[in-house]
From TrEMBL:
TPR repeats lie at residues 172-205. Keywords: TPR repeat. InterPro entries: TPR-like_helical_dom_sf, TPR_rpt. This is Flp pilus assembly protein TadD. The lineage of its organism: Bacteria, Pseudomonadati, Pseudomonadota, Alphaproteobacteria, Rhodobacterales. It comes from Roseicyclus mahoneyensis. It comes from the Bacteria. Transmembrane segments: none annotated. Pfam families: TPR_16, TPR_19.
Length: 285
């Protein structure tokens, strides 16, 4: 049946709207491709940095299970497992990634880091040896320093620590590691300087404060360092100094430090109380 002339404009408009909708649908579908990749990438970064470790593991395990061809999901799973303290589980994933066609140099660095956490120092060194010397990053040299430490290659370790410090704007942790390396070698003064530097970059790094007290105590100095600390931290550091003094045979000094720790702590300091009781019992016995 022929269309009425009056209906033609309506039909034309309807067809035009339909065609426009189809075009819009095609454009949206096209846009969703790259946008979804960008969204995935952003979400991956968020999950790796901001999410709780086990939550990140669950997210990447599910994502990788649904898209096993996506190496970024497998990287995320491996990295999140390490972050969750499950390096042994991460190692097979990193191994598969570095052996794949989509591997990048950073993958080998991350694999080495997981191996170190899993206690496989020899294989970690093997992986680091395969990284081109031109790939110079903070993480690479931090791991190189740790491996050199494990092999007691002190000059090599010092060199790598120094390079690592120069490649980051937040060197507190690597300075603390370097200081601990010096502490284990018996270079107490050098260790003290490095712990002080670490704290200057991160005044809240309690591990460096505790190590600083140990380095000073090894030199017979049991005074609290002039660094920012809470009452709880001060009590804990006094406890550390006390134990160091007792181990070095200075029981009277240790007893006084334990008493100070108990008095300083805003709540009951059970560990210090038990240590003092044990010391008193030993003296009476």
């Amino acid at each position: 049946m022929a269309l009425s002339p009056r209906l033609l404009p309506v039909v034309v408009i309807a067809l035009a709207v339909s065609a426009c909708d189809a075009t819009r649908s095609t454009d949206v579908n096209r846009a969703n491709g790259p946008l979804s990749v960008i969204d995935d990438s952003n979400l991956n970064d968020i999950m790796l940095t901001a999410a709780a470790p086990e939550e990140a593991v669950a997210y990447f395990r599910r994502a990788y299970g649904e898209s096993p061809e996506r190496v970024d999901f497998r990287r995320g799973l491996a990295a999140s497992l390490v972050r969750a303290g499950r390096a042994d589980e991460a190692v097979p994933h990193w191994r598969a990634i570095v052996e794949g066609n989509a591997a990048i140099e950073q993958d080998r660095i991350d694999y080495a880091g997981a191996l170190i956490r899993a206690g496989n120092w020899a294989e970690a060194q093997n992986q680091l040896n395969q990284v081109p010397p031109t790939f110079e990053t903070y993480e690479r040299y931090r791991l190189e320093a740790m491996v050199a430490d494990s092999n007691q290659q002190w000059d090599r370790a010092d060199s790598f620590y120094e390079i690592a410090v120069g490649l980051t704007t937040r060197p507190a942790n690597v300075l603390n590691n370097w200081g601990y390396s010096r502490l284990t070698r018996g270079d107490f003064r050098g260790a003290e300087d490095l712990f002080q530097r670490a704290i200057s970059y991160d005044p809240d790094l309690f591990t460096a404060k505790n190590n600083l007290v140990l380095a000073r105590a090894a030199q017979g100095n049991y005074q609290m360092p002039l660094v920012r600390m809470t009452e709880v931290e001060r009590a804990q550091l006094l406890h550390t100094a006390a134990l160091a003094a007792i181990r070095q045979g200075q029981t009277d000094v240790g007893r006084g430090l334990l008493a100070d720790a108990i008095e300083t702590h805003p709540q009951h300091f059970d560990a210090a109380v038990r240590a003092l009781d044990a010391l008193e019992t030993e003296v009476r016995g």
